[in-house]
From TrEMBL, chain A:
Pfam families: BPD_transp_2. Residues 1-29 are annotated as: Disordered. It comes from Agromyces humatus. Residues 13-23 have a biased composition (Polar residues). The chain crosses the membrane at residues 46-66, 72-92, 99-116, 122-145, 152-170, 190-213, 244-263, 275-293, 300-317, 323-346. Its main location: membrane. Signal peptide: none annotated. It is a multi-pass membrane protein. It is found in: Cell membrane. This is Autoinducer 2 import system permease protein LsrD. It comes from the Bacteria. InterPro entries: ABC_transp_permease (IPR001851). Keywords: Cell inner membrane, Cell membrane, Membrane, Transmembrane, Transmembrane helix, Transport.
UniProtKB/TrEMBL annotation, chain B:
The keyword Signal applies. Residues 1-36 form the signal peptide. It comes from Agromyces humatus. The keyword Signal applies. It is found in: Cell envelope. This is Rhamnose ABC transporter substrate-binding protein. It comes from the Bacteria. Pfam families: Peripla_BP_4. Residues 54-312 form the Periplasmic binding protein domain. InterPro entries: Bact_Solute-Bind_Prot2 (IPR050555), Peripla_BP_I (IPR028082), RhaS (IPR013459), SBP_2_dom (IPR025997). Gene3D superfamilies: 3.40.50.2300.
């Protein structure tokens, strides 16, 4: 992204100095950080530093935080958010949104409960749960990409619709008697590390989404799509097709999160994962993804999810009330969104002042019209 | 657009430094919060006698009923001799929201966890883990799966609670007509048990043959949602004679709706309510009679049961007894259930005698 910025930069500098000495350039024109400096000072890196700082502070100030038990409980807690954050990142980068993710997870959970109680094989139950998620995602994708409706409106609708279907499917029942081996597997840890076994699968999904976004033409195209749909279309990106598949992926991953939720808590209910969509979006935005699209990365989002997870867990372990906890999360989110904007404004003012100082002959209005 | 871009490319270093500064400030703020919260509790841990800790995990925080229960719990914890007591819990009463709190308590090495389960099974594996770590589990108010706790402290016999509410509504509507139930969440263990007994009683008792239960709605123990559900009931069933709301949030919200509507005095309302919340509605005639046990006693007994378990004086077997402070001796009944006491009926005459 900073590459595109760089090329755009040359042009306006030249036009604004049209009547002045065109050979003269501003001192300190952005050089564009490259190589290691760019990686070590980027937005993603800052998120990772913050995450490490938070962990260190928590280890020092919260008794018992520094233990493998923390790793296990913390990761078990963040897995659903981490999973859904992956497709959500891609969708928000294209400038769209998917609010129905938690409802898809709830629907999957409800369906699993009913099918399992009806005596179906657990393998079939899991597969059908996934299929239902994919279908729900495809429905969203159809309305957004093919019909062309605004994603906010569509997914607010399906947020209610899928949750409603979940209630229709399972009613006010809760199914809990899933195979103990399976539910035990979902809370099991890898040896003494405290890392949940399911993290392996989660990691594969995270890496897959990272590769798709950062290393494939499809993924790079999503950034273009987020900046300008029309421009993206002109350079040959299949706008509708891209969006459609993103929603399908979102539905599928949400279903996986629903399956995980059901088996981890060994309880299939219609209200499982409710409200999760907001936790996901908050973490994604904190991770540096722009809600306007065109900006963001998978490593940043992973750090954002873990940062919120760590703060939550540390505060809970320190027995800080949940009331304080949501205030902290909210403040953090606002700070992460507002800080760059304020700095942008400051920087812009400084830039304007410098332009005026360095190019005095460009100022008279007569010379501009000539 | 282009000009805008030109500018955003510049001075990224200063911006980033300031971003770090801003977020670091937030983190520092959080850290001090942690230190304050963590410090006071650091005395807890794998307790020897006299250094035992107890933690209450209600269905959700900031629920007026729960606050009274917890008030009694903290009083009981102090009287029973716990070194420290804490209350932690989620802001929403959803099934799985309590699990991470149980996990944190497991890690903190709390000796006794007292929990009102939002879902009997969702909390089970977390409680198992806590027990493996040596914690004693007391369920109160709403039971968990019996395999996952040592004892359950019940307000009253579930059937008694259900029957008294049916009796009250029958009296108030003259023994005939349509009634509806406005409950909490669709999965609440205690609510569903009461509703089941109510349905059975309505179906089997010839005295209630003319009463028809036309609807069950769920206000999710959310004031606004309950208010809207009450409003919806009145529109959907114009012949409705009475509403039973076996939840304190639901009955207060319904009473508030009825008191400002044309149905005031026309539609009877009863259920389980807090005297302090219901006082104005009893005084203005919206509600004639409602029931409840003293919720503070629930927490109080739970704390003493926890203490007896932690000391090893109690194992949770049927027939065992323990001393519950001022309330005297309590016995563990069938299924590991301890009954606190019979429900009280509140009306215009006696409501001023109670303050909770």
């Amino acid at each position: 992204m900073s590459d595109t910025k760089h090329t755009e930069m040359v042009e306006p500098t030249a036009t604004s100095a049209v009547s002045a000495d065109t050979t003269k350039t501003l001192r300190d024109e952005p050089r564009g950080r490259t190589g290691w400096a760019r990686i070590l000072l980027g937005r993603d890196a800052i998120m990772i530093y913050l995450l490490i700082a938070t962990i260190v502070i928590a280890m020092i100030s919260i008794p018992r935080f520094a233990s493998p038990v923390t790793v296990g409980f913390l990761l078990l807690d963040v897995i659903p958010v981490l999973l859904i954050a992956m497709p959500m990142t891609l969708i928000i980068i294209t400038g769209e949104i998917d609010l129905s993710v938690a409802s898809i997870a709830g629907l999957t959970s409800a369906l699993m409960g009913v099918l399992w109680q009806a005596g179906w094989d657990i393998g079939v139950v899991l597969a059908l749960g996934l299929v239902v998620g994919v279908l729900a995602g495809a429905f969203n994708g159809f309305l957004v990409a093919v019909v062309g409706l605004p994603s906010l409106a569509v997914t607010i609708g399906t947020l209610a619709l899928f949750r409603g279907l979940a209630l229709v499917v399972i009613g006010d029942n809760a199914v809990a008697n899933f195979p103990p081996e399976l539910t035990a597997f979902f809370t099991s840890k890898i040896g003494a590390t405290g890392i949940p076994t399911v993290m392996i699968g989660v990691l594969i999904i995270v890496v897959a989404f990272g590769v798709i976004l950062h290393f494939t033409p499809f993924g790079r195209g999503l950034y273009a799509l987020g900046f300008s749909t029309e421009a993206a279309r002109f350079v040959g990106i299949h706008v509708a097709r891209s969006k459609f598949w993103l929603y399908v992926a979102s539905g599928g991953v949400s279903a996986l999160a629903g399956i995980y939720w059901t088996l981890r808590y060994s309880s299939a209910r219609s209200d499982n994962a409710s409200g999760l969509e907001l936790a996901v979006i908050a973490a994604v935005l904190l991770g540096g993804v722009s809600i306007f699209g065109g900006k963001g990365s998978i490593p940043g989002v992973v750090a954002g999810v873990l940062l919120i997870g760590t703060i939550n867990y540390a505060l809970r372990l320190g027995r800080v009330s949940d009331v304080v906890l949501i205030i902290v999360t909210g403040t953090l989110l606002i700070a992460s969104v507002v800080a760059p904007s304020i700095l942008d404004a400051v920087k812009r003012r400084r830039h304007d002042r410098r332009v005026r100082r360095e190019l005095p002959q460009a100022q008279p209005s007569g010379s501009v019209s000539a | 657009m282009e000009l805008f871009r030109t500018r955003t490319g510049r001075g990224t270093r200063t911006r980033r430094i300031a971003t770090i500064a801003a977020t670091a400030a937030t983190i520092a703020l959080i850290a001090t919060g942690c230190a304050a919260g963590g410090g006071s509790e650091s005395g807890g841990g794998s307790g020897t006698e006299g250094d035992q800790t107890i933690t209450f995990i209600p269905k959700q925080l900031n629920n007026p009923y729960t606050d009274v229960v917890l008030g009694g719990g903290e009083e009981g914890a102090e009287a029973a001799g716990f070194a420290s007591s804490a209350v932690v819990g989620p802001l929403d009463a959803s099934a799985s929201s309590q699990v991470s709190f149980i996990n944190a308590e497991t890690q903190a090495g709390t000796n006794v966890i007292v929990i009102a389960a939002n879902d009997p099974d969702a909390v089970c594996s977390a409680l198992e883990e806590a027990r493996t770590g040596g914690a004693k589990i007391v369920a109160f108010d709403s039971d968990t799966n019996p395999d996952c706790r040592d004892v359950f402290i019940s307000q009253v016999v579930a059937k008694e609670v259900a029957l008294i509410q049916v009796e009250l509504i029958s009296e108030q509507i003259g023994g005939a007509g349509e009634i509806a139930i406005l409950s909490a969440t669709a999965n609440a263990t205690n609510q569903n048990e009461w509703i089941k007994f109510m349905e059975e009683e309505l179906a089997s008792n010839p005295d209630y043959a003319d009463i028809e239960l036309v609807a069950k709605v769920y206000g999710d123990d959310d004031d606004t949602k309950s208010f809207q559900e009450a409003q919806g009931l009145m529109q959907a069933y114009p012949n409705l004679k009475g509403i039973i709301s076996p939840t304190t949030v639901g009955i207060a919200a319904t009473a508030r709706y009825l008191s400002t509507s044309e149905y005031k005095g026309q539609v009877a309302l009863t259920g389980l309510g807090l005297p302090n919340e219901m006082r104005p509605f009893v005084k203005d005639g919206t509600v004639t009679e409602f029931a409840l046990w003293d919720p503070a006693q629930l927490g109080y007994v739970a704390a003493f049961a926890g203490k007896a378990l932690a000391d090893g004086d109690l194992t949770g077997e049927v027939g065992e007894t323990f001393e519950a402070g001022d309330l005297g001796e309590r016995e563990i009944g069938e299924g590991g259930i301890v009954i606190v006491g019979p429900p009280t009926v509140f009306n215009a005459e006696n409501i001023d005698d109670y303050d909770f």
